[in-house]
Each structure stands twice: as structure tokens, then as C-alpha cells.
Design the sequence.
């Protein structure tokens, strides 16, 4: 019934023909041409499709891209009621979001996300934000202020053919404005208050958050321009869930102290434009820091003094590009539920350095071929307390891509990439083939095939630690209700892991209707092969129980006490198969498990209703993933239905924004162990903002609201509750 209702709503929106915000991104609007005698006094707004680079590393309109791309424009960013980039991307079809604390959120396209989502690549102006040591993105370490962004491009589906490893489910590319484009000073200050009294969670007084961002940009002359920016965000902790996990096992939510977050950031950038456009040089360095809760497969950790410093040099000469960057990450954290064998919270310190050199070039051959090619070399140095045996990794990769124009109606995109990683024996091959049919310039039908991969992270290969687990003895005998038994569990890496990969096929349509709206639809099916899962692979034998087991159960007879321990099957004696049922777990590790078959549908419409009003609607459906060769209980299950609807208004002295998102129920197993797995309920979230411009737009005052209806939004079974947030913002440009 839910699916039918949502489909009817979306069909109504499409039928009305009111163009909306954005499957393909909010397009730039050009001023109407001067009216002629034959024209009406009020021209229909001209709708110009956004240009993207993330789909193939070559500038192209979305209608010509070989992959499905969504764009969030600067205008949308400016009016959206956001205080993090997860909220900004929530309205894009096919994008799943989990926010588990005031600072910790994860983003995955076309698949279930998790507490540590490892399949999504993210970049800022081409610099990778992927943290190789754990294989995930810390989104709060994106250093750019929202005011500085030109657009955000989201490629949905595999993209390793040009971006290499870790673009397994897609790419999110933040593209910033140049100092010459900014050429101003901007001060943004905001203060917010949020509810912390969910119906099923920890009851707390209201929390506070505030943010300050300052950007100074100047074009000194026709050659030099520079930018300095800084920001600081602070938020109290959100409310934790309490009571029993809704999984039928009666497992109570574990109690731990939730902590606030503080996030400073700085950027310095200088651009040099050579005379006559001969070449361009960009020098940039920055820092971003964070504190607060991060959730992992072995429980939540409290991160303190975590900082990412970076430096980059970019060189462009015509179609040739070179990019050199370094990411230096260090910090420490302590387990809030994970206790070491010494009885103290498990410590986690990390110090990593990444060095990367990338080259790329584009050439045309005749009138039918646009060939792009390039590659990169990457070096990682690691020093991790929980993975002491791994200390470095080398990576090398190269690609070539040919866009073939057969005629005005048919073009083909063929590409391939080869990568060699130091921790994997054989090279990885990532092909892409796309057939694009264009019955008209503004319409395209696309059939494409992609293959992408993710390399095991350092922690996947070399994790080496032990934690203390607990079992309630009341489950064995009611006389022992309230008593727990502590036992050791090892968490180890697996150096024999293969890369996990995805093979995806997509049928898609993109069209621009009456120069006012972008309409798009995509149907995809993909097979995820050799997925890397953190899973139990050992349990204590009945003949070899954990130390102190019998004494803990006295005065029960020993044979009764040991009856809960199943004999370890032979498969559990190695690192080749999971062993996740029965008995007390003795070891967890990372394993390549079988195949996951996944398919989905995405439709959307986005465009200009009037000169100042854009609107959008989109719908995503994901069929339940099918596990082949392993038990379904090892997987997170994504929401089947997602629906987004909204508008963006910016005209005269007024700006406004409103979006409504509805997300179906989901299931989560990436928690401490199977006792804590469970579902989250479906939820709807209404966000909105209204603002006024003063002094010729030099001053903008805005009131923003997130989750205006104050619903109990819990996007992960272990995550915090996101309740209503009311934020006041002042922006001054001078």
C-alpha cells in the first residue's frame, strides 16, 4: 500500500508538468530574452542543464554523461537548512544516509549504508577524502565552508573506471568556487536549539549548536588571487535510545556516555593564472578537526583531538591536468563499550600519511573520438595501535576512455582501468561500456555496464586486538538473573582477503522538457562479489570453555553449564568461512562472503516553475538484496522506498526552501554481535528555511528548521535520535 501511494503521488507530480528541483541538479537559470512583438510579455524561463566532470573526468552535460549524476547547485546550498553535508544530500534519489551521533554520519548510494560505510568515494576539488586506514569517509572533515561550494556532484553507481579503487557504489565530488569567483568577504554565524526528548530514548534538556564561518577572497590582479577561510562548529550530544532493542531478543540498549562534538577547519589557497591563459597553478593547504562519537563494528568510540592536515598543488595546461596532494591524519579514541583484557577502555591511536600524484589528459581524434587517459601513484604510511603489523601500502593505476560519436544520434563510451595494490596479488581490471542514444539534443537513452572494486583497508588486513564480551547468566538459569560473565573475544584481520567488486548494468533516460525541467529515470541491477564482512568465525568449544566459565555457573552441574556451548564445526577453525551461530564467540574477523544481488529504480523531475522558484520530486525503490553463498543475517538491509519532494525560492528580498523526505524501514546487523541487530522504523522528515535579504543582499537573515514535525528519526538501530532543530543564521558579505 505504501508503494502504491507513493507511486500515485509521484505520478501526479509528473503529470502536472511543474518542473522540479533535481535528479539532475538545479540548473542555472538565464535571464529571459528581450520580448519581441510576437512574444508574450513574460517569457518562459530558460533552463540550462548543469555541466559535470565527475562522471568521466571530462566536462559534459548531464544528458550526455555515461553514468547517472545528480547536482546540488550553489543556490540550493545557500538556502538549504543544513548544518552538515548529510542533510544536503538527503534529497537525492538512491542516496541512503545514516547519522549515528552529532558528528558521525555515513552516505551510500544504491545500497545499504552502515556505521562505517566503505564503498563511497568522496573528493574535494579532485583530492580524495577517503581514509585508507579504515576505508571510510569522515564527512565532518570536509574543510570547505558551504558558502565556498560551486556545486556538489553525485555519481550513482560504480565509477572505478576513472576514479580507481573505492568508487564501488559511487562518487561524491565537492567542487569549490575559485578565489576569483568569490572575490569578497563572507561572515556566517548561526545558533540553534534542538529537542532531546524522544518517545523511546534518553530524556534530556534541549541541546545547543552553533557555527561560525569566515571567508576572505581577493583577486589581486589578472594573475594572482587568493582565499583564506576558517570555520568552527559545535554541538551538544543527541539523545541515545533506551530500553530494549526491537529485535525480539530482549537485548537492552547498552549504556554509555554520549559526547558533544567540536569541529574547527582552515583553508589557505592561492591561484596563479599565466598570461594569455597559458596555464593555471593552484596551491592549497588546510586543516579540519573533529571530536565526538564514532560507531564501529566493535562498538562506539569517543574520538579526541582528531585532525586531518592536507596540502595540494594543481596544474592545468589546456586539457592536461596534474594534481599532487598529501593527507596527514592523526588522533586517538577510546572505546565506550569495548574494554581490553586489562579492564580498561580499548585505546585506538592512529597516525597516517597519504601521498598521491595524478596525471590526466584529453585529446580529440578527427571528429568522432574524444580520448581521455591518465593515472595515479599513491603511497600510504600507517601507524595504528589496533593494527601494529601493517605500516605501509603502495598503489598504482592507469585508465583510458574513448567517447565515440558514431553520428548525431548514437555515441558510445568505452573505458578501462588497471590498478595494482601492494596488498593484493593480482591487478584489478575495471571496464565500462555505455551506449547512448540521442533522438534529440536534449534527450538521451543509455545502457551501460560498469565494474568497480574496493581494496581491503589496513584494518581489514591487520586488525589485532582483543576485547571483553559479556553474557547474561540469567539466560542459562533464572537464579542468576542480573549476573554477567566476562570472557575474551579476539578481533583479527585477514591478510588473505581479496578485493570486493561490483558489476552493474543500468538502463536510464535523461531529458530536458520545454527548456524548463530535467526528467530522469534509471533502472539498475548489480552483483556485489566477495564483499568484505566483519563476522564471527570462531566460538568456544564445549571441551574448551573460556576461563572461569564453570566457576561462574556454580552451583550448576558442569555439564549443564556447558550445554550452551556448541561444538566448534571444522569450518570455524580457519579464516575461510563464517561461524556466527550458537555458543560463546571467541573470534571475529574479516571475510570475503559470496555474492549480493541488488536492483533498484529511481525516477525524478526537477526544474523552474518561475524565474525564482524551482521544485523537485523523486522516488527510489530498492528491492530486498539477495545473499548468495552466505546467510542473509550478515547484511544490512536498506530501506525499500524513499520519496523526496520540495522547492527552492530565491527572488527579490526573499529566499525560502522546504523539503519533505520519507524513508522506509531498514535492518541493521553491523553492531556488537547478533544480539544487538535490529530494525529502524520508517520516518518522514520535514526541513525548511525562510530568509530576508538586506542592503542589496549584503546581509541575509534566515530561520532554518530540520525535522520540523519533531518526529523520532533514528536512521540506525544503534544511532542517536535526530529531533527538531531550529537554527537562526546571519550572513554578511562585504
Sequence:
Amino acid at each position: 500500500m505504501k508503494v502504491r501511494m507513493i507511486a500515485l503521488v509521484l505520478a501526479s507530480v509528473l503529470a502536472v508538468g511543474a518542473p522540479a528541483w533535481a535528479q539532475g541538479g538545479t540548473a542555472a537559470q538565464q535571464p529571459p530574452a528581450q520580448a519581441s512583438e510576437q512574444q508574450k510579455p513574460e517569457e518562459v524561463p530558460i533552463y540550462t542543464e548543469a555541466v559535470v566532470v565527475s562522471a568521466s573526468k571530462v566536462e559534459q552535460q548531464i544528458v550526455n554523461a555515461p553514468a547517472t549524476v545528480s547536482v546540488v547547485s550553489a543556490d540550493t546550498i545557500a538556502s538549504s537548512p543544513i548544518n552538515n553535508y548529510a542533510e544536503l544530500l538527503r534529497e537525492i534519489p538512491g542516496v541512503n544516509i545514516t547519522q549515528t551521533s552529532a558528528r558521525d554520519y555515513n552516505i551510500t548510494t544504491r545500497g545499504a549504508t552502515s556505521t562505517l560505510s566503505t564503498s563511497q568515494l568522496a573528493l574535494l576539488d579532485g583530492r580524495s577524502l577517503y581514509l585508507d586506514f579504515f576505508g571510510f569517509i569522515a564527512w565532518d572533515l570536509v574543510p570547505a565552508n558551504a558558502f565556498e561550494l560551486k556545486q556538489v556532484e553525485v555519481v550513482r553507481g560504480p565509477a572505478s573506471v576513472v576514479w580507481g579503487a573505492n568508487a564501488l557504489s559511487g562518487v561524491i565530488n565537492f567542487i569549490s568556487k575559485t578565489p576569483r569567483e568569490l572575490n569578497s568577504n563572507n561572515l556566517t554565524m548561526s545558533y540553534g536549539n534542538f529537542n532531546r526528548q524522544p518517545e523511546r530514548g534518553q530524556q534530556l534538556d534541549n541541546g545547543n549548536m552553533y557555527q561560525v564561518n569566515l571567508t576572505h577572497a581577493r583577486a589581486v590582479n589578472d594573475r594572482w588571487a587568493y582565499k583564506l577561510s576558517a570555520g568552527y562548529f559545535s554541538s551538544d550530544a543527541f539523545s541515545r535510545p533506551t530500553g530494549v532493542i526491537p529485535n525480539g531478543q530482549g537485548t537492552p540498549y547498552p549504556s554509555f556516555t554520549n559526547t558533544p562534538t567540536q569541529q574547527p577547519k582552515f583553508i589557505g589557497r592561492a591561484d596563479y593564472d599565466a598570461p594569455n591563459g597559458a596555464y593555471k597553478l593552484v596551491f592549497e593547504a588546510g586543516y579540519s578537526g573533529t571530536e565526538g562519537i564514532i560507531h564501529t563494528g566493535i562498538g562506539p568510540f569517543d574520538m579526541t583531538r582528531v585532525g586531518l592536515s592536507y596540502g595540494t598543488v594543481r596544474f592545468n595546461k589546456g586539457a592536461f591536468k596534474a594534481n599532487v596532494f598529501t593527507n596527514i591524519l592523526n588522533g586517538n579514541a577510546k572505546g565506550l563499550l569495548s574494554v581490553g583484557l586489562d579492564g580498561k577502555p580499548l585505546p585506538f591511536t592512529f597516525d597516517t600519511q597519504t601521498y598521491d600524484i595524478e596525471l590526466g589528459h584529453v585529446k580529440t581524434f578527427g571528429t568522432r573520438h574524444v580520448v581521455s587517459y591518465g593515472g595515479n601513484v599513491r603511497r600510504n604510511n600507517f601507524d595504528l595501535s589496533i593494527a601494529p603489523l601493517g605500516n605501509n601500502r603502495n598503489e598504482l593505476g592507469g585508465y583510458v576512455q574513448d567517447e565515440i560519436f558514431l553520428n548525431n544520434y548514437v555515441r558510445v563510451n568505452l573505458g578501462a582501468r588497471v590498478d595494482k595494490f601492494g596488498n593484493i596479488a593480482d591487478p584489478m581490471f575495471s571496464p565500462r561500456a555505455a551506449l547512448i542514444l540521442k533522438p534529440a539534443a536534449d534527450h538521451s537513452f543509455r545502457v551501460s555496464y560498469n565494474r568497480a572494486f574496493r581494496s581491503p583497508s589496513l584494518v581489514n588486513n591487520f586488525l589485532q586486538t582483543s576485547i571483553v564480551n559479556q553474557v547474561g547468566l540469567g539466560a542459562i538459569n533464572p537464579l542468576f538473573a542480573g549476573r554477567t560473565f566476562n570472557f575474551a573475544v579476539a578481533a583479527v584481520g585477514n591478510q588473505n582477503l581479496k578485493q570486493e567488486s561490483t558489476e552493474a548494468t543500468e538502463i536510464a533516460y535523461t531529458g530536458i522538457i520545454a527548456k524548463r525541467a530535467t526528467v530522469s529515470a534509471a533502472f539498475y541491477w548489480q552483483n556485489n562479489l566477495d564483499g568484505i564482512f566483519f563476522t564471527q568465525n570462531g566460538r568456544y568449544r564445549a571441551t574448551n570453555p573460556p576461563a572461569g566459565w564453570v566457576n561462574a555457573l556454580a552451583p550448576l552441574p558442569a555439564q549443564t553449564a556447558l550445554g550452551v556451548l556448541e561444538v566448534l564445526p571444522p569450518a570455524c577453525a580457519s579464516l575461510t568461512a563464517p561461524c556466527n551461530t550458537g555458543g560463546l564467540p571467541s573470534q571475529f574477523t574479516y571475510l570475503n562472503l559470496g555474492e549480493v544481488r541488488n536492483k533498484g529504480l529511481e525516477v525524478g523531475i526537477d526544474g523552474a516553475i518561475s524565474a525564482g522558484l524551482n521544485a523537485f520530486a523523486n522516488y527510489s525503490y530498492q528491492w530486498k538484496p539477495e545473499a548468495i553463498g552466505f546467510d542473509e543475517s550478515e547484511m544490512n538491509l536498506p530501506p525499500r522506498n524513499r520519496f523526496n519532494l520540495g522547492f527552492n525560492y530565491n527572488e527579490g528580498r526573499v529566499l525560502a526552501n522546504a523539503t519533505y523526505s520519507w524513508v522506509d524501514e531498514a535492518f541493521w546487523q553491523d553492531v556488537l554481535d547478533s544480539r544487538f541487530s535490529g530494525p529502524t522504523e520508517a520516518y518522514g522528515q520535514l526541513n525548511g528555511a525562510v530568509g530576508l535579504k538586506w542592503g542589496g543582499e549584503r546581509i541575509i537573515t534566515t530561520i532554518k528548521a530540520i525535522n520540523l514535525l519533531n518526529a523520532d528519526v533514528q536512521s540506525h538501530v544503534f544511532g542517536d535520535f535526530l529531533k527538531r532543530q531550529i537554527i537562526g543564521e546571519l550572513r554578511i558579505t562585504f
In short: Residues 1-45, 558-563 have pLDDT under 50 and may be disordered.
